[in-house]
Each structure stands twice: as C-alpha cells, then as structure tokens.
Amino acid sequence: MKRIFYYIFLFVGAITFLYPFIWMISASIAPENEIGNLILFPSHLNFNSYKLMFEKIPIARAFLNSMIVSSSITIGVLVFGSMVGYALSRLEFWGRDAIFYLIIFTMTLPFQITLIPQYILIVKFGWVDSYFGLIVPYLMNALSIIMFRQYFKSIPQDLIDAARIDGCGEMRIIFRILWPNSIPAIITVGILTFMASWNEVLWALIVIRDESMMTMPQLVTLFAVGGRAESQLGVKLAAATILALPIIIAYLFFQKYFIQSMASTGLKE
Amino acid sequence: MKKKYLPYFLVSPYLIHFAIFVAFPVGFSIYLTFNNWNIIAPMEFVGLANYKRLFSDATFWKSLLNTVIFLVIHIPLQIVIALFLAELLNQKIKFRGFFRAAFFLPVIVSGVVVTILWQQLYGFDTGLFNRLLVKVGLGKIGWLTDPNIAMPAIAVMATWKNVGLYVILFLVGLQTVPPQYYEAADLEGATHFQKFFKITLPVINPTIFMVVVLSTIGGFSLFIEPYVMTGGGPLNSTISAVLYIYKQGFFYYHMGYAATLGFFFAMIILAVVVIQKRLVEKDR
Amino acid sequence: MKMKLLIPIILLFIVSCDSEKSSRKVDMIYWSANNTQEMEFAAKIVKDWNDKYPDNKVLFQPVPEGQSSEEVILAAVVGETTPDIYSNMWEGDVEAYAQAGVLIPLDTLNGFMDFLNERCDSATIKEVTSLDGHIYQIPWKINPIIQLYNKKMFEEVGFDKAPRTYSEFLEAGKKIQKDSDGDGYVDRWIGYAEVTVTWWQRFFDFYPLYLAASGGAPLVEKNKAVFNNDAALKVFTFLREVYKQKYFPKERISARQDAFLSGAIASRFTGPWEIAHAEKFKPKGFEYDFYPMPVPDDFDEPSYTYGDPKNIVIFNTCSNPSLAFKFIKYALSEQSDLKFLEITGQLPRRKDIDINKKYESYFEKNPKMKTFAAQAKYVRGTDQSPVLKEVFDLISQEYEACVIYGVKTPKQALDDAEKAVNLLFIK
Questions:
Q1: How close is the nearest chain C Cα to the Cα of B144, in Å?
Q2: Considering only Cβ atoms within 10 Å of each terminal Cβ, which end of chain B, N or C, has fewer?
Q3: A231, C71: Cβ pair inside 8 Å?
C-alpha cells in the first residue's frame, strides 16, 4: 500500500521534470495552429518552425562556434589541469603549497569582481568578436586542477618510477602513463567543463557582438529576448530544442557519468 | 638543472593565467572603482564618488533585497523537495535509474532553454499554470507581471532546474546512514517520522549545509533567468545584482561604476560564504 | 655588416608598404544598416558612384550583424575599426561619440552648411547641433511614429478614423474593450504598448505622445531636465487612465501571433515599416490606415511625434573627410533620395519631401505613405546629451511605476524622474 504512494509521488515528480521538455520538442514540430495547445502529440509533423529558424538566424554557424569553443576549452582544461595537478601531487618544489592554497583561494573568489576588468582585457587584446575572447579566459580551471591532483595522488608511485626508469619524460608520464589510469577523473572534468562552457551565456553576451561569432546559447537568448522571433512561439521553441538537444543526447548515453560528475563537484566543496 | 625547473614549467600555465585573468583583473577592478570610464573617452579619476553613488543607489539595494527574497524562497524549498524525493528514491523501488535520470534532466540543460520554457508555462493568457487555475475555477495570476509574485516565480523555476542535483547529493548522504540504526529503531517500534528526525537528519546535516552554501552561491549569480523572462521588471522586482552590474557596464558603459558594484557585491558574497562555512565547521 | 643587413630590411619595408597600398583598392569604407532593403539601396548607390568616379572607389559593407547596431558601432570605436562613413547612427548616440572625439565636426568641411541649409529647416539643424556648437551628423531618414488603426474595428464603434484627442481615445477604448470568450478577462483592446521598462520602448508610447502634447518640446536642455511640465503630466495621466481601465493590456501579448492583424488590438503607435508587414500577412478584407498621435483635448495645433531619425556620420579614422562628404552629398541627392524612398519605404529627412514634384508619383502609388510625408514636418529626433539612454531609462522606470502599475501619481512620478535625471548631470 505504501509502495503505491511512493510510485505515485515519484511518477508525478518525473512528469513534472520531463513534461516541459517533451512539450518543447513536440510543439516545435507541431503545425502552427496546435503550438499553443500544450499538446504532447501533434496531429501531424510540421518542420516549418525549423525552416523559419534556419532562415532567421545562423544557427548552424552558432552550433559550430559552440562546438569549437567548448571543445577547445575542454581540451585545454584537461591538458593544463593535469599538468598542474601532476606537479602539485607528485613533484616536490619550493612554493608548491603556496600555489595550492592560491588555487583554493581563487575558487572562492566570486566572478562578479573580475567580470568588468576581464572584458576590458579582452578589448585591449583585440579579442572582442573572436574565439580567443571566448576560449582563453576559460582554459584554466581551479576545480579541475584540484580534481586531477586528488586523483593522481591515488595512483601508485611504482607506475611512475617504472616509467622514469624506461626514460620517460614528465610530459610522457602525464599523458601516456597517468591519463590511461585516470579515465574517471578525465571523464568527470571533461563532462563538467564541456557542459559549463556549452551552457555559458553571460560571458558570450559580453564579448561577442558579431552574429557570425555568437555561441548557440547566446544566439538563442538574443533571439528569444529580441524581436526577431516576431512573436512566433514555434520558432522560439525550435531554437530552444536545437540548443538543448546535443546535451540531452549526450546525457541519454552517458547518464551515469553526468550524474556522478555533477555530484562530485558538490561533494568536493 | 632541468629537474629543478620542470615543476615550475608544469605549473606555469596556471601562474600565467592567474596573473592575467585573476590577479590583474582584481587589482584593476579596485583601481577602476575610483574612476569614471565609458571605454571610448579617457578615464577620469573621481575619488570615492562611485562608492557614494552606490550607497544612495536605490536600484542596487533593491537588487540585493531581491537576491535575499530569492534565496529565502529557493533554499528551503530546494531542501524540502530534494530530501523528499531522495527519501523516495532511497526506498526499495523499481525503475530507480529512470526516476533519478528524470529528476536530473533539468540540471544539465542550459538555463536559457529552461527559462524560455517556463516563460511559456507562466504566460498570462496561454500559460499552463493559468489554464489549470482557470479550469479549477480560480483566477489567473500574473506570474511574471505582478511585482509581488515575479521573484518567487523565478525562485520556483530555479528550484525546478537545480533540485535534481541536490536529490543526488542527499541520496549519497542517505546511503551513508548505517542500516543497523534503522533496524534498531524498528525493533523499538519507532515511526517513520521519528526515524527521519532522530537518525536520518543528523547524518545528512553536513549535506544540508553544503546545499545551502551551493545554492547561496548560485543565487548570487542569478542572471539569465531575469534577463530573458522579465528584464528585471516589473518595478525592478526581479533585477538581480549581476543583471544590474551587466546593465550598468554593458548598457550604459559605466565601467567604473559597474566595477564598483561588482567589487562591493563580491565582498558581500565572500562575507556570507565565510560566515556560512564557519557555521558548518562549528556544527561539525 | 650592419649596413648590409639594414638595406634588405629597408627594401622589405618599402615593398610591404607598397603592397599594402595596392591591396587597398578602395578609398573609403561605408557601413549601412543591415536590413535587406537598405543594403540594396547602399549597394546600388555605391555602384553608381564607383562607375562615375572610378578613381575614388567606395567599398560598401552592411554593419556586422550583432546584438544591436549601436553595440557593434561601440565595439568598432573601441577597437578602432570604424568605417569612414556610417549611415545608420541613432541621433541620441551622437553626442557621446562627439564628446569622445571620434567623429568629424562636419561644419568645418567646405560647403557643408550650404548643403545642410538646403536640405533641412532651422528646427532640424538646431536639433542636430551638438552641445559644443559643432554639427557631427547629417540628417538622413526618419520613420515617424503615429497611430496605425484597424478601420473596421473603429467603424463598428462609430469612429471613421482613429481618435484625435485623449477623450475620444478613452471613449473608443471603452467601446472596443471586450471579453469575447466570456472567461471574465478582457481579450480585445484599443491598443497595446510594450510594458517592459527597456528605455527605447518609450519611443512608442510616452515620447511621441509627449512631443505631440508639447508641440515638440525637449526632455533635457543644456544638461538639465525640462520634461517636468504640463504636457508630460497630461500624457502620464492619460496613459495611466488607459491602463487603469484596461483599455491596454498590462500583460505581454507579444508572445502570441500579431495582435493587430488578428484583431486582438485595434490600434498601435508605430512606424511606416508596418505597411510592408501588413501587406504580407494581413487576412482577407483587412483594412487599416494611419493617423497622427492623439493629443490633449484642448490642443489644436498639429501633433508632433518622434521621427526615429537615423543620421550619417564620418568617423575620425577617415583620411579624406571632404571626399567622404562628397560621397554623402551624392548619396543624399534628390535623385538618390527618391531611390531610397522607393527601395526602402522610409522617408528621407528633407524639408521638401511632401511638396517636391520629384516624389509626387511615389506618394500617388503609395497613398498610405502620404500620412507620413505630411507628418514629416512635425517630427522631432532626440535631444543632444551624452546620457540620453539613462534619461529615457529613468523616465521609463517612473513610467512603469505610475502608468502601468499605478503606484505613483503622475505628479510624483515626474518629480522623481526629474530629480533622478538632474542627478546624472551633477559633476
């Protein structure tokens, strides 16, 4: 008996979280007169909203931009994060602890303080409306360093010593020896970084003005806020769907990793 | 020789990045607070004028108050719902993986998408909520147009978006409760509620504090939701501090003043987070 | 040894300079607005010019598409990548750029004042004169904001055209207001204006009404707020009543289909661009027309309105301003203005637009544009002030509190707005 209540609550909960997304997708492929109906199954498929969206905004270009930006940031964060994490966990050098505490401190620093000066830096570097402006400030991430440091600590020293005897340089050790043994850390940092940069919108709104350089969330935001959707709900929802879909698809496949990664940020606090 | 410098080579990307994108901006931000600058004309030293303006700037204080309103609704709601759902998931049930994945979905989706969707749900004439209200014979509510309701409405939306993450965190916490405790309690005939308050709650206390800290930091960065949904209105009831900084900086190009707002606001955040952390540590 | 090295370097330098020159085949870069019609016009005029003056080639580019053209221009100024000529400058932005020293004072160019006097009347020239007495912009085009109305809906309630006075407007508002599906909520209104506080939304409600009620008075003059007057009070009182009686919806209806064409609202304060939109999307049998902005009851002068002027500026990155001016003169000739009118359906800002024989046939063919041409004499742009956006923003805040939410009286709201605006000017 109690069981049934559990399932009722869980089911209501699941509907609450899923319904808006299902509606979004079905309304975006519904014929125009059905869009406002909050239906789940359109009477027939109609891709007009998508056609209009492709006409109105360079969404394909924005998708490419987002891909380039998010992938570059993710690769950068993985490479630099593991380099620094390795030095901090496995090497002895003067100032190591100081650097570690510096990293911890920067994690607590609210971004609100650096927002304006960082924008001015980008302007002075001439990086407004460029990939550099979107990528470079995000190439380093304190949390990823901490995570790599933590993970590398758990790898047996023997492995590293053996590699050294074989004449491996430190860079080789990081990428050939440690990386294959740190897949969970790489996945966690990779997912977190990719997701965060894919969904980032405030920074893009600040440094990108040229429509052909805009990232997907920025383009969709401006499209939704500005007048160009010309009050056509279907087009807006089509844009939202296109923005959400890549992450949702990735989530369907790597659901467990997504949940673990996100949860680990909380647990590390 | 080579060995000696190698660690520094490895950490150098961090140090360079830190110098350019953290240390310099923080220093420059403090410098900016004493200047007026619209980027195109030369900078003008104004002493403490920006701070004076900040203290008499009703909109800024309103944005702080809005943040407090947001947090006061968002945090308790989040904890109660997340705990409730985590408790359910912690029972012996089928399809746990499905439910967990469903609750978590909004967490991974862009805030822009969530905001666009909820704007439709909150719509006055055609929104889902008002349609339901009318159907059960109640009046329509101006979810985003009534100054008293708009911010709570945004807080509810934010809860919906983030609660999945906290369900998972609580679930991890709940699973650390040793099952013997419950067995012992069962032997003594304890009710469900007694078990929850006497056994579960003390164990997951640290998780609760963590949720509070994380949600507070999240609440302080509120931006895209009011930016898309309300533009900060009605009557500035949903303008958040970050939105206001953005407006001053990138609408009006008051770089000096925006930097002052950012600096001052960051100090408040630091203070709040430090106080919260102290409380957590004391509790432990 | 050193000399030997130096010579190739110098040679290289000369060669590279030379190649730079030859690669720059144009003498001037011109940015236009990036909508299809204006791009078509700009491409045509530049082609004609280049055919006529092959030694002074102009390169035309639409302003890069961005968040808004204002922001793109600002980014260009900051990055020093401005074009020589820009033709879509909002009048309210000019003063800030002029004070930053990035615009060329055009009145210092030979023959400029003669050209301007021939094109514009003295009121317009006064309007575009900056605070320092120089002129940094050439008035180019306007899109006056007036009433667009649904003929049938007004005829149904006994009006053969849109209301002229506030009383008539309120009367019509009462008659048009309707709850057609009987759910207890009004779903038909006389009009709609955006309820968001975004500063430029006031170009479509408060500002044109204020200009109409005041005979074209400024909001700020010489760094002082001058809008706290009888006209503003009447506008606030009128609009407050409109919202209080629910003649305008307070909820955003922009999220649905076009409210005007679907008959949910009977009128709207808007510009000539609606003609193309309506012709494309209107349902069968739909009839609409334009009429000047409503005015207070006892007002019997012509009603002014906001013209949304876009002007032409020359940036100081331009190496040959007099050549740029020559090009602009060409692009603004009688003949070019006719082309512009025909291609874009926007009005060139010239004093003879409604009487010049050259444009007669266009207005014969496009009778709806006649109302706008007649209105052209009575339009205002914006006041010269480097903080104009903030002025509109502050008025907008008070407008929201008073007109839309009714939590302040018009008097209170205007007093507060005046105080806040004057604070902007304290140094």
A1: 9
A2: N
A3: no
- The CATH number of residue B98's host domain is 1.10.3720.10
CA distance between the termini of chain A: 40
pLDDT tens, position by position, C57-84? 998 888 876 667 777 788 788 777 789 9
Interface probe with A: pick from B14, B92, B221, B268, most Cβ of A within 10 Å: B14
pLDDT along chain A (269 residues), means of 10: 86 92 89 70 83 88 95 96 93 91 84 87 87 95 91 90 87 89 91 93 87 90 72 83 92 88 65
Residue B139 lies in a domain: yes
How far is the C-alpha of B11 from the C-alpha of A85, rounded, in Å? 8
Nearest-CA distance C163 → chain B (Å) = 28
Identify the chains in contact with A, defined as 3+ C-beta pairs within 8 A.
B, C
* C95 touches C385 (CB < 8 A): yes
| Amino acid (1-letter code) at residue C159 | F
Q: CA-based Rg of chain B, rounded to a whole angstrom?
A: 24
The domains located in chain C, with CATH, are 18-136+310-348 (3.40.190.10), 146-306+384-425 (3.40.190.10)
Radius of gyration of chain A (CA): 23
Interface test with A, best of C35, C36, C61, C65 (most A CBs within 10 A): C65
- Write out chain B residues lying below 8 Å of A136, CB-based: 21
Residue of B nearest to A21 (CA): B117
CA distance C195 to C211: 20
User: Least CB-CB distance to C102: which of B40, B120, B139?
Assistant: B40
With bands split at pLDDT 50, 70 and 90, how would you rate the model's confidence at C197? confident
Query: Is C374 in the B-facing interface, judged by CB distances under 8 Å?
Result: no
Q: How far is CA A51 from CA A238, C250, C298, in A?
A: 9, 33, 52
CATH class entry, domain A57-268: mainly alpha
3-state secondary structure B56-97: CCHHHHHHHHHHHHHHHHHHHHHHHHHHHHHHHHCCCCCCHH
Q: Which residues in chain B touch residue C74, judged by CB atoms under 8 angstroms apart?
A: 39-40, 253
C-alpha to C-alpha distance for A126 and A117, rounded to whole angstroms: 14
As annotated, the residues of chain A forming the CATH 1.10.3720.10 domain(s) are 57-268
The chain C residue lying nearest A127, using CA atoms, is C79
Residue B10 in contact with partner chain C when CB distance is under 8 A:
no
Distance from CA of A172 to the nearest CA of C (A): 42
CB contact under 8 A, A209 and C255: no
> B180: distance to nearest CA of chain A, Å?
22
Report pLDDT for A70: 96
Domain count, chain B: 1
Among A93, A110, A170, beta carbon nearest to B269: A110
Each of the 284 residues of chain B gets a pLDDT tens digit; together they read 456 788 899 999 999 999 999 999 999 999 999 999 888 888 889 999 999 989 988 889 999 999 999 999 999 999 999 999 998 998 888 888 899 999 999 999 999 999 999 988 998 877 889 888 988 888 888 899 899 999 999 999 999 999 999 999 999 888 888 888 888 888 888 888 888 888 888 888 888 888 888 888 889 989 999 998 888 878 899 999 999 999 998 888 889 999 999 999 999 998 988 888 787 666 65
Any B CB within 8 A of C250 CB: yes
Please give the residue range of the domain that contains residue B215.
59-283
Determine, yes or no, domain membership for B105. yes
pLDDT, tens digit, 9 for 90 and up, residues C320-341: 999 999 999 999 999 999 999 9
Q: What are phi and psi of C216, to 5 degrees?
A: 85, 35
CB-CB under 8 Å, B89 with A201: no
Residues 6+ apart with CB under 8 A from A161: none
